[in-house]
Amino acid sequence: MKARVAPRTGARAAAIAGASAATAPDRSWMKAALKEEESAIPTGLGMLRPEHRSDSAGGLGPTVQAPHGVSAVAASTASTKHGICIDTLCKGYVNSFVDFFYLTHRTDQDTNRSEIPEAHLPQVQANLCSAERAHRRADSNRVLEAYEKLANYFQERGDYKTSVYFYEKCLDIAESTRNLGQQSIANNNLGVTHDALGDLPLATRFHERHLQIALQMLDDERIIYANKQLCDVYRRHAEQALEKNDVAAAVERFHKCLKCAIDSGDSRVEGTVTHQLGAACARAGDTTQALKWQLRYLELAKQTNDQLAEAEAYAAIAESYTALGDAEQAAKYLAWCNELSARNQQPKQQVEACTALGLNASKAGDYERAVAYFEKAYQIARGLNDQKLIDSARIHLGVARGNVGMGVYMDVVNKDLSTLLRWKTRRVNF
Asked: Full-prediction pTM beyond 0.90?
């Protein structure tokens, strides 16, 4: 029979209680931390604290006050983030919790990454959880749909780096399931997003892969669209090369761009690229190729009935003939450019054509005709209020008039000293 333990009463009980209090660790800090953590849990997510539940008046009871120095909006957003993180974990979506936590607690200083608005946080959580749930069920289409929604959301907000993260997830899933249609979409989206980030070489690679998949699928609509996208990227990549004075690389990229323009079936774009290719060849010193491409540009301009492009082609062809030393052919195309520019009321282009015609006439020694062209250019330039253009036209006109009077002036200098002195001292014309 077990001995009964006497109850702790009186002096004995007091002594034991005193000893326990002296040896027990102080856990008051734990209570304070738990209380602070509890106060951060948001309402509206099924986790209301007792004092926040509806009272008899129908309200939510006392409101948690924001800490000193923190705005109410910031406190509310932080509280919502915390609550959604807990809610996601409680529902068993561990991967979604990791992604959501990363998206809402990033510390990088990227100026293009703005904080996700509080109202959008549940939407982000829902798509992350939807993707994880669909992944468990091996429903790749639903996973792709959820990740694409997230990628599009961040792209619309200008957060292109995060958009790339989710588009890459889409591409990984599409490749693992051998879904060519989704692969083409993901590659195109990655190309567009890297383009927005300013990474044209990487954007080009994704658009090239997009075109390869479209050709593999024998999908004409995708092929045309991929060629248009790739043409635009090649063109801007070529223009960048020209800015860096890498003319050889620019010519190569314009050739690729031209092929895409032809394959897309857009004659206007083909014409523009052909003109740019001709200009790049001229800059590289290959005048024969430059003339070839500008003549092709003229054909395309006439096919599309684009008279502005036609006038531009005439000017470029004239420039090529001038470089080849064929002044007669250059003058012929410049005259057509001048006529077409006047007809279509393109004064700046007409000034350039008249100036070029005047320079050609001066080189041929026909100073009277040169003066006529330069006077016309000067009159049109004055109407444009373009000081740079006016100054250029004035200089050309002054030189041409000087050339006209040069013969008479030299005769006076060589043969009539008294007339020369009167002109120098009293400006008496001779």
From this structure: no
